[in-house]
Specification:
Guanylate_kin-like_dom (chains A, B), alpha/beta, 5-stranded parallel β-sheet, globular, kinase (chains A, B), homodimer, ATP-binding (chains A, B), EC 2.7.4.8 (chains A, B)
């Protein structure tokens, strides 16, 4: 970051969501490989670690009691129960990274993003969409993991989900992964130039601080 | 533009302003040399062409009567009288370029930018500032064209002008010209991803259009 000799700036929270199959995971991976000042938030979960999963890297593995306590103390940016297990994003770890000037990426489903928005409206909300529904069908089919019925169910779900686009500040069409990742990087750069984030810098330039 | 096979998008109006001496001209030149889909708006003036100036490239050279008629018909995005001559940005030429999908750069002083904003609030307003007042003083001194008195006058003027920063959506600190130009390019990319500009694209993806 070229402005390190000024006051250390707080990092941004960048929430990346979108319909299932839009490729948000691939785009985030590309983004993280290109831009070093970004980090992904690590979720907490009550499920057991799978072989090879590392505490604090893949997940924070905590007990159900612990998780429920944290819910009670309002310590999650968002959480959800999936079957018998809980998954959530602990606020503190995100805040700590942002305080260090790191921009935190939260790649999350639409329900989770809505929870984060109500807790942290100052975040940057980006909706990743496939270029078309025929392309989305093609991508899901190519994975080869879904039956015809499951495919149709997912397509209908994506169709409903894409209507959430208007709740996001930005929409990135994932036509080519590297283009989509570069667009998100541009959004982050632009958001750092927003005048309401730079008031203290203007004070510095004037010599008022 | 990677999305040419969709509906042709309207270009953006990007207004670049800032205190005198911030280097907005140099930044704009760098920006235009790097990004081909940008054009600078051409001003109209009542002053005589200077040797080498080309009609329609440097300026539209028009008569005073013509200029006053255009003012009367509200045909300028902004205009000003400087000594005996008028200078202004004709709305129509800007609109024509935007309709062709070209992003139009308007590099303009703070008073002009305020006029443009009242006529076209949908524009992108970017304020270019020097990294510090000591750097600004150094830059103006290096030009060697100003007396000590003129220098102090310009510094005071810049000091007043920089207070306008809060009226702009974005602030770009011109520390290094290529970094500042890249930031403006990122702002343009990000603005094209704003969800309110992409409503019709979402309709296309869903197949509603």
């Amino acid at each position: 970051m070229e402005n390190n000799f000024y006051i250390k700036e707080k990092g941004l929270l960048i929430v990346i969501s979108g319909p299932s199959g839009a490729g948000k995971g691939t785009v985030c991976k590309e983004l993280l490989s290109k831009y070093p000042n970004l980090a992904v938030s690590v979720s907490a979960t009550t499920r057991d670690p799978r072989p090879g999963e590392v505490e604090g890297k893949n997940y924070y593995f905590i007990t159900k009691e612990n998780f429920l306590d944290m819910i009670g103390n309002d310590e999650f940016l968002e959480y959800a129960k999936v079957y018998d297990n809980y998954y959530g994003t602990p606020s503190q770890s995100v805040i700590d990274m942002m305080d260090e000037g790191i921009d935190v990426i939260l790649e999350i489903d639409i329900q989770g993003a809505a929870q984060v928005r109500s807790n942290y409206p100052e975040g940057i909300y980006i909706f990743v969409v496939p270029p078309s529904f025929s392309e989305l069908r093609k991508r899901i089919t190519e994975r080869g993991t879904e039956s015809e019925e499951q495919l149709n169910k997912r397509m209908n779900c994506a169709y409903d989900e894409i209507r959430n686009a208007k709740n996001y500040s930005y929409i990135v069409i994932n036509d080519e992964v590297h283009v989509a990742a570069d667009k998100i990087a541009s959004i982050i750069t632009a958001e750092k130039c927003r005048s309401n984030r730079l008031e203290s810098k203007i004070d510095e330039i004037i010599g008022r601080s």
